[in-house]
Amino acid sequence: MLTISQRGQEMPASPIRKLVPYAEAAKARGTKVYHLNIGQPDIETPKMVLDAVRNSDFKVLEYSHSAGNESYRRKLVNYYASVGIHVNHQQIIITTGGSEAIQFGFLACLDAGDELIIPEPFYANYNGFAVAAGVTVVPITSTIETGFALPPIADFEAKITPRTKAIVICNPNNPTGYLYSKEEMEQLKEIVLKHNLYLFSDEAYREFCYEGTQTSAMHLTGIDDHVIIMDTISKRYSACGGRIGAFVCKNQKVLDAVMKFAQARLSPPSFAQIAGEAAIDLPANYFDTTKAEYKSRRDLIVKRLNAMDGVFCPNPGGAFYAMAKLPIDDADVFCQWLLESYDYEGATVMLAPATGFYGTPGLGKKEVRLAYVLNLNDIDKAMDCLEHALKAYSKLIN
Amino acid sequence: MLTISQRGQEMPASPIRKLVPYAEAAKARGTKVYHLNIGQPDIETPKMVLDAVRNSDFKVLEYSHSAGNESYRRKLVNYYASVGIHVNHQQIIITTGGSEAIQFGFLACLDAGDELIIPEPFYANYNGFAVAAGVTVVPITSTIETGFALPPIADFEAKITPRTKAIVICNPNNPTGYLYSKEEMEQLKEIVLKHNLYLFSDEAYREFCYEGTQTSAMHLTGIDDHVIIMDTISKRYSACGGRIGAFVCKNQKVLDAVMKFAQARLSPPSFAQIAGEAAIDLPANYFDTTKAEYKSRRDLIVKRLNAMDGVFCPNPGGAFYAMAKLPIDDADVFCQWLLESYDYEGATVMLAPATGFYGTPGLGKKEVRLAYVLNLNDIDKAMDCLEHALKAYSKLIN
């Protein structure tokens, strides 16, 4: 039979990208669209990072080592040491974006039918990679009322079965912006050790912390064999299109298995490895500037949201996302309506409905995720638009 | 339990790369190694292709569309038309190398436990991607005596079960260099239609045909819904490190499913998409030069091999590989011995043992694959070395 596979059918469409056709139609009508829906930073990629590629002088665009260029991995050792993560270059495998690091981890550590616990709301593509790998995602609900803090350990215990193999944590979190504390990370360590689980730690937003600093899963002691860091240069250096990430791990058996998957796909992209390597030499204060910019945006967007009638937005400690509870009936309907039927002074706002970030059906229907990847002026205008839109929408549904 | 997944254990190590440590040791001893083991062309990447990236002037290295830049896909429509493949830009999804096109095809069309028929010897990484997807590869043996022609259709019929979902064909073939004829492709069409199978067609070496021209799976009429082309710029433009390929298909349901997997990994690499797009504008005679160069190399390597005592090398019609039967007991042992224990005038040769390209255990033990990716002078020296090595090895084993 000429059919689509079961996993091809089950594979979820991207909740972030599914509204794109409505946005395109709005633009075609001449409506300006403020994109707060996707984590594509507007921050310029550092010139020296792009120049490293532009000034390269090789003659053959060759495959690199399947683990990535050794020179890059050796420099990454220094980068990781600078954030308190102590690994050698053989414990780093360069991946095609953070996406591939996630895939490698799932494939090497989990079999079809295994269970993976993830606090929800979570980065929707974890679910996509889990479907591709035949793995079942078991969500544990965190709530907007607590600012999306780590759910009680009892909630994890209640969901652990003999098929549970791993927990995924994203810190600081996408989509909530929540920055897990050292105490929360220690709680995860206890449960990982008690039940002999892997701890997959997505640390894409490591540098973007506005209230304290990040506790990496590799700062935890005594669980070296359990921890896998899934990393990426995408957000760190505003280099999303490079598709360069890293799989970082101290468990030799896991590294050996991942290398076989890495060899099958030959190598990560060569051009962007040059960019990634150059980024290590950015001045130490590079993140100060971008962090200050993101912090101002966060402060503005949170203030503006909480000033709107019936809106609640907890103050996110990191990343560049905020989750807000809106006085609406259905976030999917509202976000589509914003693009299809609304404009304020010729503009509208594109948001990500939170439903796509929850594993439990029915949750997140009044919530949206906002990526503060626009400059302060645009954020202000987008918030003006949203404020007026909520009033107009309220009249429609009441 | 903290264990490696079953698929992580079953995943084969790359047969092409597993001898690398022995080659590194040989080089460390001061021995020159002629690399005929891997399809990394020495041909320079066209300057205008690299310059397109080096002269780019964007400020933010952004995600592209998950299907790849529309401008690139629209230009690819013209490229494909020039080789008799008529598709529109929405039937092309840019992938991260041909590798990802293979993965997408397997994930969208096949479920765990499904069977995939592939004439052996075959590109070893098909097996890797099959293991990752939980799919079973069913090999059908082609032999060096026939020059690796398509096995009789009866051999396919004998292996088809209710779980058979697809056939993979690579034309011209890696590792054998065999160029399937129009008649052979028509035979595949018949069996694909009769049993309602997908035909995955790897056409990475399309332009490199030295005896006639390639018959693409998309030249076959009446099987549009069945055909999936897995393509790449790696060999075509000597741009292996770009990691840019394409998934080309006219079956809308398959395209829709693949797009969901494509969205999950966000986008293909941005830098190399610029390179791929520039390559479409290469002068029409670009391939004449590279093809003439490869043809001279093929002629030389085949002549030299067949002139050696007890060696048989069929004349490959395409790609840049030759398979040779050697007067040896075990290709894996021989290839390792070449690197570990042999040199001729300070040099040795690295070959790929054919065992890694067969799915049936025990086959290919007297065969090796040679990639003619070195210049004529180096090929000549490598063949001198191999000729002497075979004599020395013969004394060891007899």
Write the CATH architecture name of the largest domain in chain A: 3-Layer(aba) Sandwich
Give the oligomer, counting copies of the same chain as homo and different chains as hetero: homodimer
DSSP strand tally of chain A: 12
> Which fold does the CATH topology of the largest domain in chain A refer to?
Aspartate Aminotransferase, domain 2
Features:
alpha/beta; Aspartate Aminotransferase, domain 1; 3-stranded antiparallel beta sheet; Aspartate Aminotransferase, domain 2; 398 residues; 7-stranded mixed beta sheet; homodimer
Structural summary, described in words:
The structure is a homodimer. Chain A has 2 domains: about 5-45 and about 285-395, Aspartate Aminotransferase, domain 1; about 45-280, Aspartate Aminotransferase, domain 2. With about 400 residues, chain A is α/β, with parallel strands linked by helices. Chain A has 13 helices and 12 strands. Chain A is globular. Chains A and B meet through α1, α3, α5, α6 and α9 of A and α1, α3, α5, α6 and α9 of B.
